[in-house]
């Protein structure tokens, strides 16, 4: 399966080096939905480009799209297409049977409360999963994935491009967000 990551990109960095497409930014983690940096690093990805871009641009909702919105920590935002083999086990948090087995409810998975979602992710990580699949809070038909760093060796970079205002994924995300 191909997943998409929107991230601050250092063009000269190796794929798994800081700000590279396959770098797990553990040193910057702690506040994210599934972060537990004392135990693992994680990548946040999406099943479609627009979803990955929306996650980065949502904080600017209602503003006019500006080039500065496509920069993080002085680096351009980029969009990477990353292949995850089908054999990688993702815990599907959109599957009722999976929720039941793990004592979860949709409202507990969808909450923005990190005090709730981070312990869930830690418990599922402890079960040996490569990562989690869950729905986007911006559009429930979009699937997001959180990959734990144990999956790093399975990943293959297919493509990476710096984002510009006229990029189709940026334009689609801007339209959805009213930018």
Explain how this protein is built.
- The protein has five helices and eight strands; from the N terminus they run E-E-H-E-E-E-H-H-H-E-E-E-H.
- The chain has 179 residues and is α+β, with helices and mostly antiparallel strands.
- The chain has one domain.
- Strands 1, 3, 4 and 8 form a four-stranded antiparallel beta sheet that branches. A four-stranded mixed beta sheet has the order 2-7-6-5.
- Strand 3 and strand 4 (75-83) form a beta hairpin.
- The two termini are 30 Å apart.
- The mean pLDDT is 95.
Features of the shown structure:
179 residues, alpha+beta, 4-stranded antiparallel β-sheet
What's the quick description here?
With 179 residues, the chain is α+β, with helices and mostly antiparallel strands. The protein has 5 helices and 8 strands; from the N terminus they run ββαβββαααβββα.
Q: What secondary-structure arrangement, pairings included, does this model have?
A:
Layout (H helix, E strand, L loop, with lengths): L1 E7 L33 E5 L2 H9 L13 E2 L2 E9 L6 E3 L3 H6 L4 H5 L3 H13 L4 E5 L7 E6 L7 E7 L5 H10 L2
Parallel strand pairs: 5-6
Antiparallel strand pairs: 1-4, 2-7, 3-4, 4-8, 6-7
